[in-house]
């Protein structure tokens, strides 16, 4: 199985992504690292533990990481995710403890310990933990198999500013470090995740699964959908973060291009923009597989099959 570390800011769609990963034998989740993003770190790290407990995986190490971006103030998204970050169902406080040690140290130590090229990083929140690890321990960069992230947008442009997607916007300096690192990147952008919209039938099928994770997914996606319905008039909740996990399991469900992507850190109106050279007009070397299309039906069938195997 592919060894991964999921770096996350749960988040309802983060929660579904984590459940998909834990239900997938193709993946060996070495641990979760929490970062500040959708809500402050004290909530994201507790939510990560709640999700592990829901999945019956209180054995997994959950490390708390950076509580603010590399530069500037934290921007959060309670308007999308609710005050808890996981609004939609009531979950008890976690009983499993946080793992000892900072998330950045866990990332560094794991990459130094495991075979070079055997660990994939899957950031589905702002890139602060990953970039901090790369800065603090440059020796680990060449040991990373790949970074498979949710973030950015090109055709769909922005969801937090007109130009920027949330995860990149929260910490553009961190994103710039990761995109310039030379590590192979897969980018699940809004262009692809806005095609991964839940349907009513799928949500109801989740709700009627005879386990606890299925109804949890239904409750989360119902809550999450409300924002996109009011804001964009779209029907269904975009399952952003699960796209990153699904690409690892079934890459053939996705289409994209190997292109150059630069992060705007200075623009007056465009800070946090992923400047994606989709039409290859710059001559700059490709640094990312930028995803744009997904086989929606197959994606949701995969999610259904896997969530059904959980407690
Ligand atoms: C991303 O931002 C967060 O709100 C979601 O969890 C996802 O990672 C989408 O822009
Ligand atoms: Ca997220």
From TrEMBL:
Q: Which residues form the Inosine/uridine-preferring nucleoside hydrolase domain?
A: 4-300
User: A GO molecular-function term, please?
Assistant: hydrolase activity
Q: Does the keyword Hydrolase apply?
A: yes
Instruction: State the CDD domains in the record.
Output: nuc_hydro_IU_UC_XIUA
Q: What keywords tag this UniProt record?
A: Glycosidase, Hydrolase
Q: Which Pfam families match?
A: IU_nuc_hydro
Superkingdom per UniProt: Bacteria
**Which InterPro entries does the record associate with it?**
I/U_nuclsd_hydro_CS (IPR015910), Inosine/uridine_hydrolase_dom (IPR001910), IUNH (IPR023186), Ribo_hydro-like (IPR036452)
Q: Which PROSITE patterns match?
A: IUNH (PS01247)
Q: Where are the transmembrane segments?
A: none
Q: Does the keyword Cell inner membrane apply?
A: no
Q: What is this protein called?
A: Nucleoside hydrolase
Species per Swiss-Prot/TrEMBL record: Paracoccus albicereus
């Amino acid at each position: 199985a592919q060894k991964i570390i999921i770096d996350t800011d749960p988040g309802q769609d983060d929660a579904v992504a984590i459940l998909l990963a834990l239900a997938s034998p193709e993946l060996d989740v070495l641990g979760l690292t929490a970062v500040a993003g959708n809500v402050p770190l004290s909530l994201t790290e507790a939510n990560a533990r709640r999700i592990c407990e829901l999945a019956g995986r209180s054995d997994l190490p959950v490390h708390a990481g950076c509580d603010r971006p590399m530069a500037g103030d934290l921007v959060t998204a309670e308007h999308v995710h609710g005050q808890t970050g996981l609004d939609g169902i009531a979950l008890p406080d976690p009983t499993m403890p946080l793992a000892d040690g900072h998330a950045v140290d866990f990332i560094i130590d794991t990459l130094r310990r495991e075979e070079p090229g055997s660990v994939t990083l899957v950031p589905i929140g702002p890139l602060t933990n990953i970039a901090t690890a790369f800065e603090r321990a440059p020796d680990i960069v060449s040991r990373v198999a790949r970074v498979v992230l949710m973030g950015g947008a090109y055709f769909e442009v922005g969801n937090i500013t007109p130009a920027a997607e949330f995860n990149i916007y929260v910490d553009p300096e961190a994103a710039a470090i990761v995109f310039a690192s030379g590590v192979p990147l897969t980018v699940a952008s809004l262009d692809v995740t806005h095609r991964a919209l839940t349907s009513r039938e799928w949500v109801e099928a989740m709700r009627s699964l005879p386990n606890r994770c299925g109804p949890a997914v239904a409750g989360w996606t119902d809550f999450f959908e409300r924002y996109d319905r009011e804001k964009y008039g779209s029907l269904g909740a975009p399952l952003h973060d699960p796209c990153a996990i699904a690409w690892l399991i079934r890459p053939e469900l996705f289409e994209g291009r190997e292109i150059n992507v630069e992060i705007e850190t200075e623009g007056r109106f465009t800070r946090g923009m992923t400047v994606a050279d989709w039409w290859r007009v710059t001559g700059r070397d490709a640094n990312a597989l930028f995803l744009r299309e997904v086989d929606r039906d197959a994606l949701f069938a995969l999610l259904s099959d896997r969530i059904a195997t959980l407690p």
